[in-house]
Model the fold of this input.
Amino acid sequence: MMKLFNNIWTLWLLSTLLILGYLTYIFNVEEKGIFSPGKLTHGHHQIEMACSSCHTEPLGGGEVIQDACVNCHKEELKISDDSHPKSKFTDPRNISRVKELDARVCVTCHTEHRTKITKSMGVTIPEDFCVKCHSEIAEDRPSHKGMEFTSCASAGCHNYHDNRALYEDFLEKHIDEPHHLPEGKIKSVSSLEEITTSAGYPISKYPVKKLTGTDIELHPGIKKDALITEEWSITAHAQAGVSCNACHKVKDDKGVVNWVEKPSHDSCKTCHKSEVKGFLTGKHGMRLNQDLSAMTPAMSRISMKSTAHDKELTCSSCHSSHKFDVKHAAVDACLNCHNDQHSQSYKDSPHFLLWHKETSGQGDKNTGVSCATCHMPREEKELGDQTLILTEHNQNMNLRPNEKMLRSVCMNCHGLGFSINALADKKLIQNNFKGLPKVHNQSIDLVKQRLLKRGKPREGSP
Amino acid sequence: MKFKLLALTSFIGLSTVLSGCGETKTTGIEPQTMTDALFKVMEADRTVYTKLIIGRLAKKEKVIKASEHWKDEKALVLPAQMFRYGAERVAEKTSDFSYSLLSLWPVNAQNKPKTDIEKAGLKFIAENPGQNYYGKETLGDTTYFTAVYPDVAVAEACISCHNKHKDSPRTDFKLGEVMGGVVIRLPIKS
Done:
């Protein structure tokens, strides 16, 4: 009897130890799916197993989650001139609105782990959220009488956060623009001189001086490679005085400088802070930013080429080490992995034709439209007191809602009305803008009607 | 109705701690004294910006434009925007007090009075130039001392902009007239 009793206790002890061991193991590896109460949205699924990205404290409540949201999305909201900042809802006079929609915290509208009720842009509340505060809109704007409550934020007229290209005066200012602007061009990236003299650039470490293969100094024991030297010698790096050691010699935690065969984004960050920041914020690099393994196309929820499934996404995945060919990075690097209909249609699109013309010397500089032109646009970045034009490497920055592309992308070459219609035409997006928009957004029509009703323009009009 | 707000009283420098009857009693300044002081600072800054920046640079010397869409137009922010951005900054830093710029004739309909005190206060200051309106209101589960101060057209720029703005419900403002009101709220013990 005693023996049986002992056996039961031994079994209990072993089972407990096994369970504890298992739990300890899965807490310390990436696969924590067992603890997830539901899948994450398209925006966060890459970092689903980095629970502490959002749950920064084990017993933290809503405030902790809110801090995590703001930590990653603060800059995006600031840039977008958020139409509904938190301060609107913390104002005591709006307390009745908070009762209807507590927009002081992001999770009111964007709750994670709720797959069944998650709509576009990670919204998890019913579509009538605008009505909570703007039910009387038809009184101020009679033209809005009878409009469906679901159409406010879904018809390309308004967005909850970003209305930079949709507000009335902006529409009025661009009211009669043609489909194609006569002088339409993409912005140029800031010059080497502008970049190397900007705040934070390590100019003392890497003085601007054109280098050739004979200038290369390598770490002891590392042999010069003729092909790599040739590829490097025609890059901007060679023009800017940046050679092998700049990227490959890396200080470890103890301050010892070692030669690293495959430098990480940390090496790139020395000179390309803004670009690396964008990369780590977007879907390509957000896993690395959470100390997870690099993103691979296999992990994606959109269609990717099977041949690329195991490729790891780092800076060199698109920029290919040593060559750093930005033309390759702007199109072929994307199409090597992306396999959705929009991507597949690109090479049959008028945008690609322009790109082909420019890259083959038949078209003017900055007239071609690559994948990166739209998805990684050249944006104004403030570095200290200086404003540079740099490539936004967070490809999600302007992706959803797609009206975010109007100002930074479409309106470089197209009129506003045409652009709004094109972005509202899902079929046109699928075939990569081959043809004219078949959807007509009425926002500019409403502005025209109001102008006619008003008669002569009054101040406040553009 | 004693206003207990240590952060603010220490800011003003009037905080005192009195002892009596064997227990510690914290007293501060009267809410009205507090809101009056806040308004004096706001009014002074607002007038300086309107006259010395907008009136001088945009209207008189015409060296730069002032625009509602200041970022796009690379222009100066309008005085009302300057005031609101300040209020938003304060709201980000503290909930010890809040303030807003409202009007019976707002360019943006969201800035028309909403609570009973706002409605009564804006009507009172418009009908009684030079006077303020004070009251107590409960919003949600918090009681506030709410003060409404007249916002007067101090420069030609104020009336010309509002009278010509396409969204302004009133187009006959005159210099020196009450155009709206500054509403300051302090949470108090009910």
About this structure: The interface with chain B takes residues 81, 85-87, 90-96, 98-99, 140, 169-170, 454, 457-462 of chain A (CB under 8 Å). Chain A has a mean pLDDT of 92.
